[in-house]
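Changelog-linked ticket: cobalamin example.
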Amino acid sequence: MPAENADSRAETLLLELDRLIRERDRVGAIAAAHAAVTSGSLTIPQLYALVLVPLMRLTGARWQAGDEEVWEEHFTTAVVRTIVESLYAEVAARTAAPLGKTIVLAAPAEEYHDLGLRMIADRFELAGYTVHFLGAALPQDELVSAARELTADAVVLSASTHFHRVRLREYVDALHAALPDCDVWVGGPAFSHGHSGWSEAEVPDIAVLLGDLEAGA
Ligand code: B12
């Protein structure tokens, strides 16, 4: 399948998923996303970056404009989460050779946006990292404990709101103090307009981090 057509295939699927979700056809939406991956039309990273992330942003924009109700946004979120979780067997089957690096991913205390981080978890796994995804709203002490127990080389955190980004600075400083040999990487929508107050190493670009590692995914 030529890579140059991935954008147009992704756009077609995005429109299809949006239509199916508006028709409340959950089963059809999940099947369409699976078919794109199993047929080789899109890789899993392409499905996430070019279809599912834009779909979630579209839902958010409609809600903000008053064109969608909160329950409809939750419906879309639930369908997208099911797509991601149900693709896990495909992720496991396509994982690159192990890199010998372990990461732990979590959303910090009080941060409930974890779907983006869940997608990132699969992308790291496809690239050969050993991945432990701990989900939303994890207290700092629990993350320290997990990183030690799981011998993490890096902890990956996500923040979606400005409020959580401010709180995250303190959280990350405490992690650096407790886990001096462990990298701490942060990202997410709260960092989309810059990262003043944060070092380059703390806010890596996922494309640079994974680079060619996920090319074969
Ligand atoms: C779904 C959703 C929710 C769901 C979350 C479900 C879940 N479990 O994730 C629920 C209903 C819980 C929710 C709650 C709230 N939400 Co909300 N939500 C959204 C929505 C519609 C989609 C989020 C999403 O899934 N995006 C898709 C994912 C896949 O993308 P992503 O998170 O950006 O992640 C990608 C990248 O950023 C990156 N990435 C993410 N993390 C990391 C980390 C690293 C290290 C790296 C390298 C990269 C990286 O990779 C990901 C994949 O490519 C957005 C709208 C939008 N524009 O995004 C609003 C949005 C994020 N929410 C918002 C708000 C305000 C809230 C609430 C405060 C609403 C309220 N009044 O209650 C609460 C906060 C709850 C809390 N305490 O956390 C605002 C944030 C505004 C701001 N900048 O402050 C948004 C932008 C909506 C809006 N336009 O106002 N929300």
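Closing comment: Example verified and attached. The chain has two domains: 3-93, 96-214. Strands lie at 102-106, 130-133, 154-158, 183-187.
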